[in-house]
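task queued by scheduler; priority normal; single chain, no ligands, no partner chains; default sampling; output format set to structure tokens
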Amino acid sequence: MQLLWNGGRALASPREITEDDAGARQLADLYATDPGRPGIRAMMNATIDGAIIGDDGTSGPLRNPTDSFVFSVLRAVTDVVLVGAETVRVEDYRRPRGRRDLLEPSLRPSGAARPALAIMSRTGELPDSIRADWPTLLVTGAAHREQAIERSGLPEQNVISAEDPTAIRRALTERGYRAIQLEGGTTSLARFAAAGELDELCFSTTHRTLGGHSPRVLQGEASRTDWELDLLAVGGHATITRYRRAAGLP
């Protein structure tokens, strides 16, 4: 993979990042969370023609070695993976550990051995594969809390009552999760973007087209956010980008 742009500017000479243990460590350093700038990073995979799911209804047809390499590194530097319940059901979420060679010593700001999984759900209806001891958190509104606890089977201390993206960020941060990675779905990303609660938007653009019909990355109410390109790397199978919210925005 060739790193062409970093820190908001083009590099005088491309920097090689090999897709192996040494390259993973380099990439982890690039994506490390600034202690003074904790926040929410969205990570999504898309194709050149903008598809985010394949004809099987999952992101499986978009995956490739470059994407898998970057995704595993990002999860290794993340305190908590935040995701909607529908995405958990469709994409078969279980244990979002991250790349094995980056787990010890922990690179997460919290110092934890593995990331927590925080699932947003009104009903608390979760797949049988989800276990409380991962650790797994359920994020739901106060009005749905009791029902969600009963349906999910999670202990009460694992349930967070938060009504909106700002409250969700605050609740997770108060539990010590400083590096939050939002992985979908598209309506969740749209909600957080509209609320001004996305700090980074990271893409793996697969060098493939799928045609057909696919939702956009942000699928919901219209909102405008200006972004600045912070990182650009080109691999054999995907182009990797990171955008930060433009300076001056709250």
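post-processing summary
- The chain has one domain: 2-10+23-31+38-245.
- The chain has a mean pLDDT of 92.
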